[in-house]
Amino acid sequence: MKETIVISPVTRIEGHAKITINLNEKKEVDQARIHVTQFRGFEKLCEGRPYTEMPALTARTCGICPVSHAIASSKACDNLLAVRPPKAGRNLRRIINLAQIVQSHALNFYHLSSPDFVFGFDANPEDRNIFKLMQTNPDMAKDGINLRAFGQKIIETLGGKRIHPTWIVPGGVSHEITKETKDSILAQIPQAMDIAQKSLKFFVSNLHKFEKEINSFGNFPSLFMALVSKKGKLEHYDGLLRFVDSEGKIVEDKIDPKDYKEYIGEAVEEDSFLKSPYFKPYGYEKGMYRVGPLARLNVADKCGTSLADEEFERFKNLNNGKPILQTFYYHYARLIEIIYAIERIEELLNEKETLNPQIRAYAQINRNQGVGCSEAPRGTLFHDYKVNNDGIITGVNLIIATGNNNLAMNAGVTQVAKTFVDGNNIKESALNRVEAVIRCFDPCLSCSTHAQGIYSSQIDIRDHNKELIESIKRG
């Protein structure tokens, strides 16, 4: 008789999900899947709203990475207006987006994932949390709080508040920064960099403890997608899309993000509210790709800042210069990106043009469709808007970073479950590893649940032997 193991809820992630592990008659794992069980539906909620509301409105899809949505949304609105913000406006947008990446990566590494690194995947469940970390490793816990605070304070200083700032607007940003603000942020950089480098040293020095996890946590060939600069460098705010395969061969390059639909298809499965994007030329069955920090480092030729590039070289040497396939190394890539982001924030603040009071371009609707694309902490983010001539939203398509990773997350939980789960002797530590591969991707599920055409509720009626009599599904 076939059986199903259900992990519900998946812990130490943002949002709500469960994992099902299907066993065969021999109680061996056949397949595992992640099911996202919440629905937000912002693609429909935004219809009928004026385009000017979109950066603030779509930021409400998430309390962890609202800046990412505001950035992609404002870029889509720039496209509707057919304007390019002044250099100062672009620099300030870049700074706040990089601050978002620092604070979000720090949240994942310290608060969500580090208990596994510090206490081990086999530790007691009650010990694998940030509170135990605060008791046993208070300096590390404080470092996590301080590094995240560094990013959040920049967001608050520039945007007016740490969550859902309304400072990012169509055409640029709403107000400039002062020299005093610039100097205040620069003064915080040495401490942030010291913490980031300390965290990287801790992680790398402990990798030898997790060889089995490294080799089985989502370790498979796939495509990788990210934005890169015109020179092929790591890029988060602007740039062109690039796809590479598992051997490092560039499959598609220099793609204008507005043409994303030519390369990315979107599928919907009945068991999840999370869409499943795929590389359209390869089809749904073979078009799996990954996004996010691991993908960005696999796709880029270099980072472009000194300290990050030093570590980037060591990172690339893990596979002799070819793409790193092990999903476990998302954590490594995240730490390199934190160092890069801190360096770039310092560079951008020291650019003379950043203090220029010309920060915003003004225009009326000049196009009826606009696409905005940027790199959120978790990967490539698309906002695609259609408007009428009065600037009222008539259609929205969102491809969220976490959605881009959906096929890879399902492949990852299946691989981990087959490696660690024994249906005859189910151990909690094995199930923790199944969850942990999801934490490698750092999914932001409330951001990404916009799939339509699937059931929003299901009632199962069973008899006294728990045999299914009837399922009632409602849309």
Write the topology of this structure.
Blueprint: E1 3-7, E2 17-23, E3 29-36, H1 42-45, H2 54-59, H3 66-81, H4 87-119, H5 130-136, H6 138-159, E4 168-169, E5 172-173, H7 179-205, H8 211-216, E6 223-228, E7 240-244, E8 250-255, E9 264-267, E10 276-279, E11 289-290, H9 293-299, H10 306-316, H11 330-349, E12 369-376, E13 379-387, E14 393-399, H12 401-404, H13 406-420, H14 428-441, H15 445-448, E15 457-462, E16 468-474
Parallel strand pairs: 6-11
Antiparallel strand pairs: 1-2, 2-3, 4-5, 6-7, 7-8, 9-10, 12-13, 13-14, 15-16
Helix pairs in contact: 3-4, 4-6, 4-11, 5-6, 6-7, 7-11, 9-11, 10-11, 13-14
Report the end-to-end length measured between terminal Cα atoms. Answer: 31 Å
Give a count of the beta strands, DSSP E runs of length 2 or more. Answer: 16
CATH H-level name... which superfamily?
A: Cytochrome-c3 Hydrogenase, chain B
Radius of gyration, Cα only, in angstroms? 22 Å
> Largest sheet, described in full?
4 strands, mixed
Q: Give the class from helix and strand content and strand pairing.
A: alpha+beta
Q: Average pLDDT across residues?
A: 92
GO molecular function: ferredoxin hydrogenase activity; nickel cation binding
Cofactor: Fe cation; Ni(2+)
Pfam family, one: NiFeSe_Hases
Keywords: Iron, Magnesium, Metal-binding, Nickel, Oxidoreductase
